[in-house]
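for the writeup, i need someone to sanity check this before i put it in the appendix. the sequnce is what the collaborator sent (i think, or maybe the updated version? ugh). structure was predicted straight from it, no edits. if anything looks off just tell me and ill rerun, i have time this weekend
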Amino acid sequence: MSARRWIWGVWILVLSCYVVPYGMLGQVQAWYGSFLFWCVVGVLVIVANVMITRSFRDEAPRDTASRRDTISADGEKRP
């Protein structure tokens, strides 16, 4: 599944964190119903974030100066 769908899934989970406890579980007097729901959704958001960021790569740009390179007064890069 693409990262865009995972991001939409996170937004749906965040929205459900408001709708379910305050709407559907609003009449439940025990606190642990909402707490359990929030814990499960929290784990699902962590899994979704892992799925979103699994394709990130740490690649350095090729056109940047390295520490060993010097830049002259006219802006030219010299090794």
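The chain has a mean pLDDT of 80. Residues 3-24 form the longest helix (22 residues).
thx in advance!!
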